């Protein structure tokens, strides 16, 4: 399937940000014909045991191609964070049949997650203060929990520092589903930093992206 969705915007004068979302319907064989991997990423691809992950890995490269990049323009640092050689900031995520990237002049993080009931069971592992404003009986409970997880994952991708705890260090302030945005705080190493986050819902998936406030 071709590109599923594109979002373009500018947060500040002189900056641009673009989000691309791919719905993965192609087989590995189909994707492999259209994507060339650099040797290091080819080794990563060959070592993947999940066909789902392999298809997502190749779909991300398809998204890069749409922006004029190839896999040879993408590098990973020692912590596994992706970087583009031209200096643009990139973040990557995939879940089941969706793969997404965000490319920006600003440091950013992105995450996409399927909305599932099992998140209720694991919520105490990644949320604490947030559970004080969430209502289990509310029909938005799973949707909000999914967004909260996505926010914390996105912030972690921005900072990419060992020792950050989703539960203890990242706090999402109360928000409304209809606002599709909010604020989160990172308290880490005696410093507090705020982040703006935004999200959209596609089918039963939640796509979240975040930026550190200046």
Strand order in space, largest sheet = 7-11-10-9-8
Stretches with pLDDT under 50, minimum 5 residues: none
* Overall mean pLDDT: 95
The amount of beta strand, in percent, is 25-35%
The end-to-end span amounts to 38 Å
Shape descriptor: globular
- What is the H/E string? EEHHHEEEEEHHHHEEEE
| SS class | alpha+beta
The number of helices is 7
- Main sheet record: 5 strands, antiparallel
Rg on CA atoms, Å: 17 Å
Helix fraction by DSSP (H/I, runs of at least 4): 25-40%
Number of separate strands: 11
Report on the structure:
- The protein has 214 residues and is of the alpha+beta class.
- It is 31% helix and 34% strand.
- It has 7 helices and 11 strands.
- The chain has helices spanning 28-34, 39-46, 51-66, 119-126, 130-133, 141-159, 166-169; strands at residues 3-9, 17-23, 74-76, 82-84, 89-95, 98-104, 108-114, 170-172, 181-188, 191-202, 205-212.
- The protein has a 5-stranded antiparallel beta sheet with strand order 7-11-10-9-8. It has a 4-stranded antiparallel beta sheet with strand order 1-2-6-5, covered by helices on one side.
- A hairpin with a 2-residue loop joins strand 5 and strand 6 (98-104).
- Helix 1 runs parallel beside helix 3 (51-66) and helix 4 crosses helix 6.
- The longest helix is centred in the last third of the chain and has 19 residues, at 141-159.
């Amino acid at each position: 399937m071709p590109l599923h969705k594109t979002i373009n915007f500018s947060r500040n004068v002189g900056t641009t940000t673009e989000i691309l979302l791919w719905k993965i319907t192609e087989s590995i064989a189909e994707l492999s014909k259209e994507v060339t991997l650099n040797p290091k990423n080819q080794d990563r691809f060959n070592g993947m045991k999940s066909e789902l992950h392999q298809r997502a890995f190749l779909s991300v490269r398809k998204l890069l191609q749409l922006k004029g990049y190839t896999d040879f323009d993408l590098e990973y640092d020692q912590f596994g964070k992706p970087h583009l050689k031209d200096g643009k900031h990139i973040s990557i995520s995939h879940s089941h049949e969706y793969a997404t990237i965000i490319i920006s002049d600003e440091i950013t993080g992105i995450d996409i997650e399927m909305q599932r009931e099992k998140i209720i069971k694991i919520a105490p592992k990644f949320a604490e203060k947030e559970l004080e404003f969430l209502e289990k009986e509310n029909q938005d409970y799973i949707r909000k929990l999914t967004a909260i997880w996505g926010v914390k994952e996105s912030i972690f991708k921005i900072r990419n520092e060992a020792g950050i705890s989703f539960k203890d260090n990242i706090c999402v302030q109360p928000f409304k589903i209809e606002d599709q945005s909010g604020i989160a705080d990172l308290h880490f190493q005696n410093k507090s930093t705020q982040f703006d986050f935004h999200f959209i819902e596609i089918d039963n998936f939640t796509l979240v992206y975040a930026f550190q406030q200046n």
